[in-house]
Design goal:
The complex is a heterodimer.
Chain A lengths: L3 E3 L2 E5 L4 E7 L6 E7 L5 E8 L4 E4 L2 E6 L4 E6 L8 E8 L7 E2 L3 E6 L1
Parallel strand pairs in A: 2-11
Antiparallel strand pairs in A: 1-3, 3-8, 4-5, 4-9, 6-7, 7-8, 9-10, 9-11
Chain B lengths: L4 E3 L2 E4 L5 E6 L6 E7 L6 E7 L2 E4 L8 E4 L6 E5 L8 E8 L9 E2 L3 E5 L1
Parallel strand pairs in B: 2-11
Antiparallel strand pairs in B: 1-3, 3-8, 4-5, 4-9, 5-6, 7-8, 9-10, 9-11
Classes of the chains: A mainly beta, B mainly beta.
C-alpha cells in the first residue's frame, strides 16, 4: 500500500528558514498536502500541490515537489514561534477523498 | 461559520466498556470522514460517508466499531467493547464533496483513554 515518511523532529531558531521533508511511494499520487496540527487541535490545511507542478509559493510557504524521486518539501521562511506545531505530509490520488498521512514532523522554534 | 464540532473532547473509560463519539460537520458538507490518530502518528481513515452512505469502511474494525450518519448530517462512531489498544484521538473531518476543491476540514478530535 501507500507509504508516506517524514523525519520526526526539527528545531530551528526564530527568523531562520525551516525545511520539512517528506517521501512517498505511490507513483499515482495526484495531490500532495501539508497540514499543521497545534496541540489539542485538529489538522489545518496549509497548502497543497498538484503532481504536475514542481513548486508552489504561498506567502512564507514554499512547496517543492520532485516527482521522479517522490520527494516533497515544505519551506517556511522567517520561522516564528507560532509556527511550532506538528506538520503532516499527505498524499491522495483521487481529488482528496483518500488521504494517506505521514507520521508528522514536530517543529520546534526557539526564540 | 462554525467548524467541525466534536464531542466529547476527552473520554476515559475502562476496557470492555462501550463508548460513542459525535460529530457535526460544517453545514452543507456532504462528505464526512472518521480518522483515528495514534500517539505520534498521522491520522488513518476509518470510514468515509457520502451523505448517509458509507462509501469506504475498509479500515473500520467491524467486530467492535460501528458508525452511522442517519440523516446525512451528524455522525456517531461507536466502539463496543473498547480495548486498551483503542486509546487514540478520533478525528472527524468534512468536505463539500468530490472534485478538485475538496479540502477536508478537521474537528479538534476526541481523545480516548482506555484503562
Amino acid at each position: 500500500g501507500e507509504d508516506v515518511e517524514q523525519s520526526l523532529f526539527l528545531s530551528v531558531r526564530e527568523g531562520d528558514s525551516s525545511v520539512i521533508n517528506c517521501t512517498y511511494t505511490d507513483s499515482s499520487s495526484t495531490y500532495l498536502y501539508w497540514y499543521k496540527q497545534e496541540p489539542g487541535a485538529g489538522l489545518q490545511l496549509l497548502t497543497y500541490i498538484f503532481s504536475n507542478m514542481d513548486m508552489k509559493q504561498d506567502q512564507r510557504l514554499t512547496v517543492l515537489l520532485n516527482k521522479k524521486d517522490k520527494h516533497l518539501s515544505l519551506r517556511i521562511a522567517d520561522t516564528q514561534t507560532g509556527d511550532s506545531a506538528i506538520y503532516f505530509c499527505a498524499e491522495s490520488n483521487n481529488a482528496g477523498n483518500m488521504l494517506t498521512f505521514g507520521g508528522g514532523t514536530r517543529l520546534m522554534v526557539k526564540p | 461559520e462554525a467548524g467541525v464540532v466534536q464531542s466529547p473532547r476527552y473520554k476515559i473509560i475502562e476496557k470492555k466498556q462501550p463508548v460513542a463519539f459525535w460529530c457535526n460537520p460544517i453545514s452543507g458538507h456532504n462528505t464526512l470522514y472518521w480518522y483515528r490518530q495514534n500517539l505520534g502518528q498521522g491520522p488513518e481513515l476509518l470510514i468515509r460517508y457520502e451523505n448517509e452512505e458509507a462509501v469506504d469502511d475498509s479500515q473500520l474494525p467491524k467486530d467492535r466499531f460501528s458508525a452511522e450518519r442517519l440523516k446525512g448530517v451528524d455522525s456517531t462512531l461507536k466502539i463496543q467493547p473498547a480495548e486498551l489498544g483503542d486509546s487514540a484521538v478520533y478525528l472527524c473531518a468534512s468536505s463539500l464533496g468530490t472534485g478538485t476543491d475538496n479540502e477536508q476540514f478537521f474537528g479538534p478530535g476526541t481523545r480516548l483513554t482506555v484503562l
